Amino acid sequence: MQEKSIEFYQRSELYSYVDTSDRFMKLSKQVAVEESLTPVFPIGIVIVRDGVVVAKGANGNGYHEKNLNSEFHIKGCKRRYLSKKLEEAGKPKLKSGEKFETCPGCDYKVHAEVKAIEKVSDKSILKDAVVYMFGHWWSCFNCWEVMNSVGIKEVCVVEDFKDKQFQVKWREEFARLKATKSQK
Ligand SMILES: [Zn+2]
Ligand SMILES: [Zn+2]
Description:
- The protein is an alpha/beta fold.
- The chain folds into two domains: 6-60 and 111-183, Cytidine Deaminase, domain 2; 62-105, no CATH class.
- The protein is built from seven helices and five strands; from the N terminus they run αβαββαααβαβα.
- The model has no long low-confidence stretch (mean pLDDT 94).
- It binds zinc ion (ZN) (2 copies).
- One zinc ion binds next to α4.
């Protein structure tokens, strides 16, 4: 598969838009709350085949959180730092989804799609399965490559996440739910 533009992977034809009330979407949200290690961008996934959940996963590896005060990072992220430097040099800053490989906390290997798939030892059960993703509305080139390689047939997302305000609300809710959980 040839790497295409970020805009290509954001096209609505590639995704099924599902309501937040969908039971698998609710489950994906729960997985994000339980497993995501990135409060700035929490994403949860369940993979469903024939109506049965066969895998789940969430994004992050704690890198951003560990490097909050590190040099050459912004909010723990090398990519944000690079983007800022580019901007200061009068160059275009990085687009959403661009140069994930420049930061260990942004790398596709810690994306929810790949982490969920990695956990499955018998990849054949993923053939013709459906990915439900809560927290984001498109998947990057690398995740598509991995999903295609195991035969994922459909990717369901919540279209509201295109709206920045909706994303902010979700982050706030995530923080609240996390806090409640840790009190227990
Ligand atoms: Zn990063
Ligand atoms: Zn990805």
